[in-house]
Task: inverse folding
């Protein structure tokens, strides 16, 4: 039987692993323009980190049925992926932390509200897929953040109890999801969608500007606390 891991780290993708926020924003702007609606920065802030069906219902109410909502989500993601293929890089401190956690025996997982195709594209372009033992994306859940489902499914996949998991997040809804799941959470403010104060209010156990401030020892201290 393989030895038990010391713990697990579950990573959000957009705004934590990479910064693709502006690509998502422009994709939503283009989609909404075709549908006769403006998409504003306020709309983006209000919906960031949520699943596409939830965002579309927020924007359009009951205008579309479920089948059309699915099609619109696909259209939006095609717009996003076309732009992302021009280049995406890991955020400061991410690769070093991924490598350190891997070397120390931690299990690592993706816990994202994004579709699986988006996640696969990002991992391929950043050459980071080898660090992850499990990937949980929009297709694996029925409820978006702040519901903890995405993180609980990730913990189950890597076979680590929630209390021994640390989540890396940049969004208030994501921090709330991590805490609702009984996990520790590091809030990252580098991309700037949420202030350190708002992430702390949401329950983040530690808030940092970039992940250069987080080490393997930092993670150990968090889940041991």
Result:
């Amino acid at each position: 039987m393989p030895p038990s891991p010391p713990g697990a780290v579950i990573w959000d993708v957009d705004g934590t692993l990479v910064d693709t926020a502006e690509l998502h924003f422009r994709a939503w702007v283009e989609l909404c323009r075709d549908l006769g609606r403006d998409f504003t920065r306020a709309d983006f802030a209000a919906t960031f980190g949520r699943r596409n069906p939830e965002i579309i219902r927020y924007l359009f109410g009951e205008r579309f049925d479920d089948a059309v909502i699915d099609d619109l989500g696909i259209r939006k993601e095609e717009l996003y992926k076309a732009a992302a293929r021009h280049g995406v890089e890991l955020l400061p401190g991410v690769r070093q932390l991924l490598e350190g956690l891997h070397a120390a025996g931690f299990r690592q997982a993706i816990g994202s509200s994004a579709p699986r195709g988006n996640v696969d594209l990002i991992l391929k372009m950043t050459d980071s897929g080898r660090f992850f033992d499990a990937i949980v994306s929009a297709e694996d859940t029925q409820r978006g953040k702040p519901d903890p489902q995405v993180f609980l499914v990730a913990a189950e996949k890597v076979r680590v109890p929630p209390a021994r998991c640390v989540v890396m997040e940049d969004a208030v809804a994501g921090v709330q999801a991590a805490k609702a799941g009984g996990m520790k959470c590091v809030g990252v403010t580098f991309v700037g969608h949420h202030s350190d104060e708002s992430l702390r209010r949401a329950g983040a156990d530690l808030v940092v500007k970039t992940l250069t401030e987080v080490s393997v020892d930092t993670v150990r201290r968090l889940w041991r606390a």
